[in-house]
Specification:
single chain, 5-stranded mixed β-sheet, mainly beta, elongated, Ubiquitin-like (UB roll), 101 residues
Amino acid sequence: MNFISLFVNCNFFIGDETHCYGGRVITVKWGDYTRRVGVDGTSDAIKDVIRSAFGLRTKRAFWLEDEDQVVRSLDRDMPLGTYTLHLDEGIMSTYRFNFDS
């Protein structure tokens, strides 16, 4: 007999309001911003959600690092927990062209 497990998490607020969500969710921090991201999709879908959640309009590489400073791959089997978002600084190059006639 096969069983399918579904993680259901609830946040309780003051009053009678309860907010629940299902699936696998990680917490991603970048500076002063914190977002909860579902990791039920493909690797590309997770990347797109992180870019959208933090308003990243660049194609620069980024990675997630857990609390033990371990860089993790983005997939649906990644451990649940809190991650820090790091953006690739990139390399700035200056080119100078001289056109002599």
